[in-house]
Amino acid sequence: MQRIGVFVCWCGSNIAATVDVEAVSQALKDEPGVVFSTNYQYMCSQAGQDLIKQAVAEHGLTGIVICSCSPRMHETTFRRAAAAAGLNPYMVEIANIREQCSWVHKDIALGTQKAIVLGRAAVAKLHLNAPLTPGETPVTKRALVIGGGIAGIQTALDIADAGFKVDIVEKKPTIGGKMSQLDKTFPTLDCAACILTPKMVEAAQNENITIYSYSEVESVGGFVGNFDVTIRKKARYVNESICTGCGLCTEKCPVKNVPNEFNLGMDSRRAVYIPFAQAVPKVATIDPDYCNMLKNGKCGVCARVCTAGAIDYKQTDELIEQKYGAIVVATGYEPIKLDKFDEFAYNSSPDVITSLEFERLTNAAGPTSGKLLRPSDGKHPHRIVFVQCVGSRCAAAAGKGKEYCSKICCMYTAKQAMLVRDKYPDTEVYVFYIDVRTPGKNFDEFYRRAAEEYGVKYVKGMVGKISPQGEVLKVQASDLIAGRQLHIDADLVVLAAAIEPDRSARPLATMLTASMDTNDFFTEAHPKLRPVESPTAGVFLSGACQGPKDIPETVAQAGAAAAKVIGLLAKDKLTSNPCVASVDELMCNGCSSCERVCPYGAISYVNKEFRMPDRTVALRRVASVNPAVCQGCGACTVACMSGAMDLRGFEAKQIIAEVDAICK
Amino acid sequence: MQMTDYKPKIVAFCCNWCSYAGADLAGNNRLSYPAEVKIIRVPCSCRVNPTFILRAFQRGADGVIICGCHPGDCHYTSGNYFARRRMALLFSMLDYLGIERERTRVEWVSAAEGAKFAATMNDFVSTVAALGENRRLEDLRCKK
Amino acid sequence: MNRDNVRDEVIRRSGTDPRKCMKCGKCSATCPSYDEMEGHPHEFVYMVENGDIEPLLASESIYRCLTCMACVERCPRGVEPAKIVESVRLEAIRKKGANRLTPEAVAAVADEELPQQAVVTAFRKYAK
């Protein structure tokens, strides 16, 4: 039997004015188990807390009920006071008689009556409280960043700067991501490579950062502070530590017609290649799909020309196992496939290109060495049509496009259109738009410059059809403001394709038990207040994997994610909320219902031996809650059909006791 | 609201992160609602087991309301969706058992919606009061 | 019937929701009869949404739509403008209580230029 002390707070006159505190403390004195009941002017004051301490000592209290303000206000205060008095801090219950009683009810009789009921409910609940101890888990002081684009690089640099070890896993042979493929960046027109490559080099040289390029995450286990990750380092058939990146092999390789993915297939590379001049790590990679030596054992040119002897045809995938305290997802985006947009003739004409292809066409390191030439005949285009919202804001059936706004297209289209007019003033440039969305510092000014200073023709309306006819592309569009249909003979059409999360994100989310929205963007723990954390503890989000964003936003989020990671890794131990789910293994039938509703992946299953009534031993599958991961929402307790799952601090019997007390 | 002597017993389950905070805000702003409403704090609306509601009716409650975060705003991401689905089922069963549909309700009240909390409670209490005492499911042995 | 009732009936019959329209104009950009019409597909959607059906009923545009469904195919929001045009056309026909042309009269207005599709559509229309 508990020995309960009740303390009714006046809160000055806040409570005492509309609740007869003396009557409340007298009434609660008669409740079962209550051995002490008093009221005091300010329970939260030092004197009030001393009162608690004194009463605990004098009356041998095992738990206390405070009738005061909201537990959201002073629960911590009273838990500390209880701990100071030698009680378990979770043997405290608070009856909210201020916010939910004295402040909302004007009538003293009614207010007093309700306060007594609330006090009774708290006493009834406290009878069933059990001392709880927060769990403690150690933290592995190492972070994993998945994705080596600008988001991943920035996050890794920031974490490394704080003195923690960081590993970057990048599936491509080099870090750099999409930003390395861009020519200029809006709204400042900095050259993307000029601002990105120093960061890539910095990441490579930082002694706290390890880059696993051409690698993928194979499996993830564990939980916040203690993730066990297996990384598959794919065989690149080149010894990374010996290769000097001289590039001789990439010149001598006889297989010349491999589509160059870095230039989006607009030119070709060899079977052994370095993606681009500033690649990090700058080592060659052999493409096993094209290499003659790997395919049929006939060639070996690269091995012969390599002075360092770095070529290794026998290399195999390597599995690396590593423990991490935190994981940052920075898997980024890719432009959508335009197969379903027949009206834009992307598949039928080489002169209809995507914006990312346009970036490569205007980049000095691109297939045309920066000269804007049509892919079909290498001629200079004199009339260019840019089409915005290709697949963005598209709610048509059959998954044609994406329902969301891709956010970056308005700005990069303005940039591309402006740069064309700047470099080639003889070119006529049209931009077809539905809305021009330019919220951002200096963004609208930038767009207006494109229209006003550079003479880019912005037309409100959409392009309906593009038909290649001979050398020209017949563009049929509407001009909604003039109220006419336009027919333009264009030399080049640039489609601002919607962006979508990288394809690798979905399987990764499953491994991490991190939730995703219907578009496969990672969900944040709270859309406003915890935008860089995933609901899964210890998993953080950086960049476009969480939603479309431009470079400044990505870098800002990368830094924010890093700060969260540093905050986590700076702790030696994690204390967890003890009000978590717990399973009664004898009642659990291993049905997996709880596992399926758990938003955090805190529930797993173990096979355990149980002694049966007939003295045999049976192996049964039972649920097991990881208290470090469980956040204590209680979804599983209701999903459990056998009633095996309960939530500490909010146990079913406690809530039922409260219900009973209220309905009495 | 009807002026009668009859005072309904209302149990309100409020999630800790949104609705309980919304109730606190109603208090901060001194927005009154009937004293018949007694709030039970739960971490999330998905913690509300249908048995709690059945128990309340068994013990003589006249109305039960569950308040949670707005869809999409759940502190635990998806808890309120579970609550919504479970309660839709439970309420239709209660309706079948003769407990009027108006005696049960799920409402979304955010931490910033003190006024909505008070208005919801006023409305709910007057609706339940109009229905009168709940005699279904009530266990007379619990009444002395 | 008042104005709102007519609008609701036209929308109901079309089976579409003009409120989904985001005013991009792709329907009108894609329309092969654009120059033949004074009210264009996007204007149909907008005017029906606002209940301005009278001017559409009076306009020739409702008979210029070929029902080729290009706008339906390409609309990014799934608004299906051709169905709205069709619904307005039916409103006109039902009001008159008869078809605009008799099947016998079609031959007289058909010429070499008239697309086969339009003839088929016309017959489908008059079969009602």
Radius of gyration of chain A: 33 Å
The helical percent of chain C reads 55-70%
The CATH topology of the largest domain in chain A is given as FAD/NAD(P)-binding domain
CATH superfamily of chain C: Alpha-helical ferredoxin
Structure description:
The complex is a heterotrimer of chains A (664), B (144) and C (128). With 664 residues, chain A is of the alpha/beta class. Chain A folds into 5 domains: 4-127, Rossmann fold; 135-228 and 319-330 and 502-574, FAD/NAD(P)-binding domain (3-Layer(bba) Sandwich), CATH 3.50.50.60; 235-316, Alpha-Beta Plaits; 333-500, FAD/NAD(P)-binding domain, CATH 3.50.50; 577-648, Alpha-Beta Plaits, CATH 3.30.70.3270. In chain A, strand 32 (603-611) and strand 33 form a beta hairpin. Chain A is elongated, with a radius of gyration of 33 Å. With 144 residues, chain B is of the alpha/beta class. Chain B has a single domain (10-131), classed as 3-Layer(aba) Sandwich (Rossmann fold), CATH 3.40.50. Chain B contains 4 helices and 4 strands. Chain B has a 4-stranded parallel sheet with strand order 2-1-3-4, sandwiched between helices. In chain B, strand 3 (63-68), helix 3 (79-96) and strand 4 (104-108) form a beta-alpha-beta unit. In chain B, helix 1 (19-28) packs across helix 4. Chain B is globular. The two termini of chain B are 29 Å apart. Chain C is an all-alpha fold and 128 residues long. Chain C has a single domain, classed as Alpha-helical ferredoxin (Fumarate Reductase Iron-sulfur Protein, Chain B, domain 2, Orthogonal Bundle). Chain C has 9 helices and no strands. In chain C, helix 1 packs across helix 7 (81-96) and helix 3 packs across helix 7 (81-96). The longest helix of chain C has 16 residues, at 81-96. The model of chain C has no long low-confidence stretch (mean pLDDT 86). At the A-B interface, helix 3, helix 4, helix 5, helix 17 and helix 18 of A face helix 1, strand 2, helix 2 and helix 3 of B.
